[in-house]
Design brief:
By secondary structure, this protein is an alpha+beta fold. 19% of the residues lie in helices and 10% in strands.
């Protein structure tokens, strides 16, 4: 009797699950507004994602559920910068690395570049691609200090493998994010059997223009490797309408017709449907199915640097002080409390971050190292914050995506605030073809510090800023580069009535024409200092924000609201970075939405 009851229970559960899954498939495989079936050859095989189960958390990342918070100071501004006044902001959910990018991970990036872009004497561009990504190891040198040996060991030696990479500029951090996007998506396509393991196939040369780039693949998979289809194994399965037509042919041929000859002659016009010994079916090509598109939801979104608002929100982790829809109290650091030592019974007195504790005191006394490190420490050396993120205070400061401006006022955008938006589009040549960068059309840029770096790498698509025609009659934006929006553009200038085309000759609040560097005919910077005192300010659109304190900073800078800046081409021995990514779809992984809204059917 017990066995029968158990069997009935299991049977009922199985039938319920089967019914619900059938309803799910029916609901998502059919257009509820037109009645047409998706992925059905009888209805044209129009595709729709049926089995998409939501965005997976990328490796090494943590989901930060978005919400509202107060961005800016909650303590006295003893530096009198007045550049971080409190502003209420709303953020969308996003992913962020649980720890900083390490020397080991960045060295993998460098080794990949050196292999794909060999450092030969005949290819100067390859050298520049590699050198553009190489960290400045000389940041460890000091005029009156014996730290020069770290220039030789910190990046490469295995003793520092799991330490955060430093000496990386903002531009280099952005380059790593782009590369990481391509490598993660390349691995996904390899695991799905769509893309062959490129380095494992001796017949494929992964060099120069021939390497996997996500955006190029999504635009046209055959723009990669000069159209060589042998890099692909198989595609996403597709229900072909050809099989359906064969079935129709068999049914119709079995029926009697008043004019059998006419019916057969009509069907024979499509020679692909006639299967005989003399006319067999054509052989299937090596690649079957179709390529992955963004609509499949298989590939990850772009890795990028977090915005200033995102980084500060993730660092503060005020969610641990939430009571229903209210935040109780204020957080001075990434942990609760106003002190930098642990207050728990077990670890009472231990340091909660790696920072400079006083003049000449970076780690405490021998035999009782206060924070366990004199310079940087290994990632995950201290307790994570409430979001599960490590070292958001101390160890190294971190680059964020924003262009620096002294004030973020209440008039700024209060939803996903970010300064530095630059709208681009793919470049189409005179023949109407998408242009892919190669060794012939790669452009070299000269940075303010004199370095000459390539603007991209071979194999990537070429992007150009949008034009006035692209933004004509739009209400949400009018130009490509919006770094000066409402703070440095003509609208915030006494020459506001002038035309934007004349802006190059008009004195500016920031980015004044006198601030431009001089370049000779070979593209090299004319290295001379400004002797005419024409610069009105050092602030310009090449300044980027970095957040958080470091091993070299006092406790004041551990406050997540603090903000500092450096030129995007500069590097130091105390600034690293971590990557972020947009959250797509639902803002939370939680199944329980009752506290937020009631979903009506």
């Amino acid at each position: 009797m017990k066995f029968q009851n158990s069997f009935k229970t299991v049977l009922i559960i199985f039938l319920s699950v089967f019914t619900l899954s059938s309803c799910f498939r029916t609901e998502h495989s059919k257009s509820t507004l037109t009645g047409w079936n998706f992925n059905d050859p009888h209805f044209g095989n129009f595709t729709a994602p049926v089995d998409y189960r939501g965005q997976k958390t990328p490796p090494g990342m943590v989901l930060i559920e978005g919400g509202t918070f107060t961005m800016g100071h909650v303590q006295d501004d003893v530096m009198f910068d007045w550049n971080s006044t409190p502003v209420r902001q709303q953020l969308r959910s996003f992913y962020i690395d649980e720890a900083e990018v390490t020397n080991k991970e960045y060295s993998f990036y460098l080794e990949y570049l050196s292999r794909v872009f060999p450092q030969s004497d005949t290819m100067d561009i390859n050298k520049r691609i590699y050198q553009a990504a190489l960290p400045d190891t000389l940041v460890w040198r000091d005029n009156l200090g014996s730290t020069g040996s770290l220039s030789e060991t910190y990046l490469r030696h295995p003793a520092f493998a799991n330490y955060p990479v430093v000496g990386v500029s903002w531009l280099q951090a952005v380059g790593y994010c782009k590369w990481r996007t391509d490598r993660v998506n390349e691995r996904i396509l390899m695991d799905k059997g769509i893309l062959k393991p490129l380095f494992a196939d001796d017949s494929i040369s992964v060099e120069g223009e021939n390497h996997f780039v996500t955006q190029t693949y999504l635009k046209n998979p055959y723009l990669l490797f000069n159209g060589d289809s042998s890099i692909y194994s198989k595609g996403v399965p597709v229900r072909k309408s050809l099989n359906s037509k064969r079935g129709i042919f068999k049914k119709r041929s079995a029926r009697k017709s008043r004019n059998n000859t006419t019916v057969i002659d009509t069907l024979l016009q499509d020679t692909t449907l006639l299967v005989t010994n003399d006319n067999p079916l054509p052989k299937k090509p090596e690649f079957t199915g179709r390529h992955v598109t963004i609509s499949d939801g298989l590939l990850v979104s772009k890795y990028r640097l977090p915005t200033e608002a995102e980084w500060e929100y993730a660092a503060k982790a005020e969610v641990e002080n939430r009571e229903y829809n209210t935040i109780r109290g204020r957080k001075k650091y990434t942990w609760n409390g106003k002190y930098t030592r642990d207050n728990s019974k077990r670890y009472k007195g231990d340091m909660l971050a790696n920072y400079k504790q006083g003049q000449g005191d970076y780690s405490g006394l021998a035999g009782w190292s206060s924070d366990g490190a004199d310079i940087t420490a290994e990632i995950k050396s201290y307790k994570p914050n409430a979001f599960g993120l490590y070292n958001m205070s101390g160890n190294v400061a971190e680059w964020v995506a924003d262009v620096y401006r002294p004030i973020i006022d209440s008039q700024a955008n209060d939803f996903n605030y970010f300064r530095g938006t630059n709208f681009l589009k793919t470049y189409i040549d005179s023949l109407g073809k998408v242009v892919v960068l190669d060794y012939n059309n790669l452009v070299l840029d000269t940075l303010n510090n004199g370095k000459i770096v390539p603007n991209g790498s071979p194999g990537e698509m070429k992007y150009v800023p949008i034009t006035k025609d692209d933004a004509f009659m739009r209400y949400n934006y009018r130009r490509a580069n919006n770094a000066n929006q409402d703070d440095g553009d003509l609208a915030s200038n006494k020459y506001f009535y002038k035309d934007e085309d004349d802006a190059a000759s008009i004195p500016r609040m920031y980015n004044s024409p006198q601030n431009k560097i001089e370049v000779d005919e070979q593209g090299r910077v004319v290295k001379k200092y400004d002797t005419k005192n024409t610069r009105r300010t050092l602030i310009n659109n090449n300044l980027r924000v970095y957040k958080g304190g470091s091993w070299k900073d006092r406790a004041y800078w551990l406050d997540p609201a603090q903000r500092r800046y450096l030129p995007e081409y500069a590097a130091t021995d105390y600034i690293g970075f971590r990557c972020a990514m947009d959250r797509l779809g639902s803002s939370s992984l939680s199944k329980d939405k009752r506290a937020h809204f009631v979903k009506r059917k």
